[in-house]
Amino acid sequence: MDQVILVNENDEIIGSEEKIQAHKNNQLHRAFSVFIVDSEKQTVLLQKRQISKYHSGGLWSNSCCSHPDPNTNLIDTIIKRLREELGIRFLDKSWLETSVFITNHIKQVGTIRYQHDFRNLSENEIDYVFVLPVDSTNLEVIPNPAEVSEVEWIEFKVLVQTIEEHPKQFTAWFEKVFSCVEQSMFNTQSPNLLMD
């Protein structure tokens, strides 16, 4: 069973809980959101969540999102989820080399506090937002159909317009985490929205 890291409002660890139970109990826990970006082309890789996901199925979201494992290094968990959800690998690298590249190039660009109720569950999260810069022409993406129904590279300016015109096509947390990416890509100061 997947466990999540429970925290208080200051993001201090207070325990762990089974993932679905934490969402049923509205317990504050850690999450992470990753944006794979091609800075040269000004594009970002989005995923459309599989319709059967326990929440937000059929909606567009960031490249990958999940929860840190209480017993695993955060970057290692991110690498694992990128592989499980998107099957990513660089065409000129082995999987080990891909893992090393991710470790060396991924960067945290913000932290948000996010709460959203859906059905009988609640997302109550402190979400660490990461950017992974890549050359999209050298990246192979093979989405896991159990997790992702489709992926798409989209230009930043088109994405901003689409969010404004069709916000219901995106997950409830998307606009908030994407704002961290916009700040980091186009400004010098990255936001910390923890106490937002």
Automatic annotation (TrEMBL):
SUPFAM superfamilies: Nudix. The keyword Metal-binding applies. CDD domains: NUDIX_IPP_Isomerase. It comes from the Bacteria. One of its GO terms (biological process) is dimethylallyl diphosphate biosynthetic process. The keyword Metal-binding applies. Pfam families: NUDIX. Gene3D superfamilies: Nucleoside Triphosphate Pyrophosphohydrolase. It is an enzyme of class 5 (isomerase). Its EC number is 5.3.3.2. This is Isopentenyl-diphosphate delta-isomerase. The lineage of its organism: Bacteria, Bacillati, Bacillota, Erysipelotrichia, Erysipelotrichales.
